[in-house]
## 1
Amino acid sequence: MSDRGPQDTLTTERGNLARLAAALGTGNGAKLTITQGEGVGREIELRDTPLIVGRSSESDLRLLNRAVSRLHCRVWRDATGYWLRDLNSTNRTYLNERPVVEARLKDGDNIMVGGTVLQFGEQRSVDGDAQNQLYDLVTHDGLTGLFNRRHFETLLDQEIARSRRRGHQFVVASLELDHLGEIRDRQGVSAGDELLKRCARLLQLELREEDIKARLGDGEFAVMLPETPIDEALPLLDRLRLRVGGSEFNVGGVVVTTTLSAGATLWTKDVASRDQLLKSLDGALYKARHGGRNRVASM
């Protein structure tokens, strides 16, 4: 694997996206994409038959979260377009943060069912002029496959609004690989990239499917733990720290080890904004770093 810098990676990603745009052709129709919660990343094609979302095995899209009713909501199409209807669910169906009984769907609308967010998208023709727009819509980090910072902040705003509305709390944590720069100096940029990918994979394996995982910077990850109190989050993060610290990674025939520092903070209704939450998160990570690294700290 040859070493490459950030600009090379960005150029490659832009080229891949341009080829993707050309390959999309002129397909029509609509789909739901799970952007948060159970099954994140999954795409559901909408057809002529109605789609029922719920916890029951009779549902077309089954979500096992306890906040989801057996038959929660219905999506269907008529001559005027696609529609959403709540099926007398216990916790209601939300469209763009507002409870609805019935509403017509527009491209980009967000449907919230329990802890799951489904984005409605209409598939249209994609031409060369749309390639830059396609790039702007990318939500994942090209190296690790986790969400990127921009999309993480969008999901964070959604979770703040949802938790404020329902009176829930949640935890956000910032995770940093210790001494990544030294590993890059000794083993090369490629080795550092491979280590980041392996650690991202550990995050995916160790955390719940509904937990949000993102890459914020070079060696910094973030996780969001919906409806999780701080006394449950801290042991979970410490297990993750021990898992990373106890692993040996074979990178290009060389055994590489690293440790993890983590800072965690609890969102409550007293936190006024996303910026205030992220400032508290920075303080928690600073506390872990300057406490000797390879530890979990909270604020």
Note: The chain has seven helices and 18 strands.
## 2
Amino acid sequence: MFRIPTITKNLLIINVLMFLALIVFERMGVDLNYTLGLHFFLAPDFHLYQLFTYMFMHGGFTHILFNMFTLWMFGGVVEQVWGPKKFLFYYMACGVGAGVIQMVAQFGEFYMLASGQIPGFNLGMAMEVAQANAPLLNLWTTVGASGAIYGVLLAFGMLFPEQRMFIFPLPVPIKAKWMVCIWIAIELLSALGTSGSQVAHFAHLGGMLFGYIMIRYWRNHPGGGYGGYGRSRGQQFFDRMKDNWERRSHRRADDARRQDPRRESDWDYNARRKAEQDEIDRILDKVRRSGYDSLTEEEKRKLFNGGK
């Protein structure tokens, strides 16, 4: 936990604490998901603050486990690239955007249901019909950080499109950009192919949509909000990885020399280490510029052997 970036760590802690509070209050007869969850905007129990509070509530252990695991896995990397302020703004904006899209989808469902049951129904009658069906509309409650989490997934895919990942149950690694495309396709098909689902697929898509708009804006306005797109921070992130790798490599070599000082002279050792390090530096620079897939098999072998 001490190595997780500040905002990601605090988001994990707050979500877990809210889930524990949910369990405690349920035993007292109070449903926090109902109070802090996001209600349909035409429902009497809708409040504007729910657009922020709903993303810290969850419907069960599996729900929060998946969301927090994904936040831990991808959020820390994105935060290190963008910095805490920009990452927090992005996370919250994706969560709020997901809630807005979810309510738009709910209104579409509400309109279709009303049109099918009330002859001559139109938008002018929406509020009257909503008031007449208030108890039912209050049951349309959305909870979960999934919208913000899907926004983080999109950010990772756009920041590191060539990064290869294993996604269960696929037997081979796929690039992050294709992972994002697969998730979008699954959510879109699920949203269009199911009705009355307990999963807010449109909220997931909404988080990605708002995330995409923000990232595109930051790319086109590099001098604006929160220091632009964060390429310099991305460079620092990879530089830190390189520095850590170099320190570990030097430490292993020094330990080996101390164990067998007669193995080679200081001159030979220093010359060999410099040549090896120069080659590794060149390969790492190539990775930063063009991605891991741009390496030849020989370069990959050298990087792998150097890492050992």
Note: The longest helix spans residues 84-117.
## 3
Amino acid sequence: MSGTPQPKIGLALGGGAARGIAHIPLLEVFDEMGVKPAVIAGTSIGSLVGVVYAAGISGAEIRQHTERLFGHRLDLARHLFGIRKARITDLLSLASFSSLHIQTEKLVDMLLPDDVPRRFEDLEIPFKVVVTDYEQMTERVIDTGPLVPAIAASIAIPGIFQPTRLDGRLHVDGGVTNPVPFDHVREGMDFVVAVDVTGRPRAVGAKTPSNMEVAVGSMHIMFHRLAEMRRALNPPDIYLRPAVEQFASGDFLRWREIMAATTEAQENLRRALRVRLAEADA
């Protein structure tokens, strides 16, 4: 760009559990083209990936961190229960005889790279986390204060992750109210990029899915429909939907395949950014 100031880009990263690994190759496209978002909003897994990028860590470095985490089951166990000196009892909480919840804040703290700041105010790029206030039944956006509790609330899939208590109230997955939070990165921006990884339930054929698969798949139906309604009402400028429907919510160990499935979405992003940057340079 011939000395022209870079346009202000708002970036929204949606929720979709393991499918959210698809966000990483798209962040690499931003780096490849030498542009940075001016503000980022994330829901669920989008908040976990987005906060690392907002900390100034490149897409390639996030890819490397993901490989270290999920490259092998043993490596993941060593990271969670070795490097950070965590015990399995730190992660699992027996809420009742029939309910086993992952302690979400401890999990988030373990998964984040060590050089990610622990407060919003210390990030390089302004960042917003979308959570759902379970008791007030409302969407909530957090962009100040401690990071870990906010991200923990945003990824707290009901029935799997332990809800997070913020300001005395329970909060759960941000996807329940806003699966792709592009509406929170519009103000003052020249254009908005949104990445939707909500997908849909994976085809099961003749196989009978587990109760957990049905529960999480049903949530993805809700997330998908909600994202579509929000998009129809007020669409973002660039809307990307990586081809990740074939992956299940828990397919984190298939991270290579998930990233490889983003090739078309990466090219679509490159083309769209070239057009927008050329317009700004004209």
Note: The chain has ten helices and ten strands.
## 4
Amino acid sequence: MLKRFIVKKNERGALMRDGDFERLLDAGRHYFWDPLGRLSLVTWKLDAPMDATDIVEYLRRHAPALAERSFECMILGEDEAGLRFENDILVEILAPGTRRFYWKGLVAHRLERVDLREDCRVAAPTLAHLIQPDLRGRALAGLSGVLLAQVPPHHVGILRIDGKEQGLLEPGMAAFWRFNRDVQLERVDTRLQAMEVSGQEILTRDKVSLRLNLAATWRYADVRVAHARLARPVEYLYRELQFGLRSAVGTRHLDELLENKQIIDGGVIQHVRARLEGFGIEIESLGVKDIILPGEMKTLLAQVVEAEKSAQANVIRRREETAATRSLLNTAKVMEDNPVALRLKELETLERVAERIDRISVFGGLDQVLDGLVSLRPSGA
């Protein structure tokens, strides 16, 4: 007939009669007369939120003093966010419209309200608690309601709220409330950047297919203008480089392009700079890295080069033969009028012949040897 209920020290209980709330019970042993078995006990942990909110709402309306003494009530409006502290340590970010109740006694709960209508930027003292949440001893719940905007060095951040640009963020860390609004951040590198336009198949004016690779360096001249006028500035720049390359190659013959590659660079940069004017992007430099010919065209060009070099060799050979003949003629004229020079030439010839002979036997004197080996005097001399 006598029923005992036990509530642990880290718990609080509610006595229920026929399933309806009767009273709150503190930690300890409690005895009640219950001959009909109508009483029951419901307990809750002190370190967990009160999930039976209907009981709390009943007490707040019909026994406000008891509710104030027993519960920490955290009720937020639609335009409010909350910072929940336990023992002065931030443990959770509460979304607008949250209704949360905690038992008083075991943990000191505290709520800081944030008016979302005033400013979407998180205050600096709060931001200091949000930075590097993974390094905290206890995980921070509800962090998805905050956009942590970290802008690296040499970058700027384009902040958009509900699709409207709000300005540029300098390098550093900032945070913005995401409740009741759409907050987006786009990071933009302001340093000099490289772009490759590779494998472009283009026909020249004389219908020769070429494959070209182009490299360009560029930077943002005005980030806000570039992203205000262009949905995707990098894609726009890449497309204009393609168009400029096709314009520079398609209007010229192959020989002209092979003789001077700078023609392509000049044509492309002139086209691109004209198309980028007023869009906040500037080209620092560009150049064609490679011009790749088809296999059959390589063979034909090799044959042309071989023929040109062969013709040049023939010209040089004929020029040298003409010079040698002219030199021989001049020598003959000198020897014709000068017997001493003729004699020296004879001795020189004899010397060259003697170099190839191991031994020479001379009979009748040197004149007979010369007359028998070499006769350079013209008839009638």
Note: The radius of gyration is 50 Å.
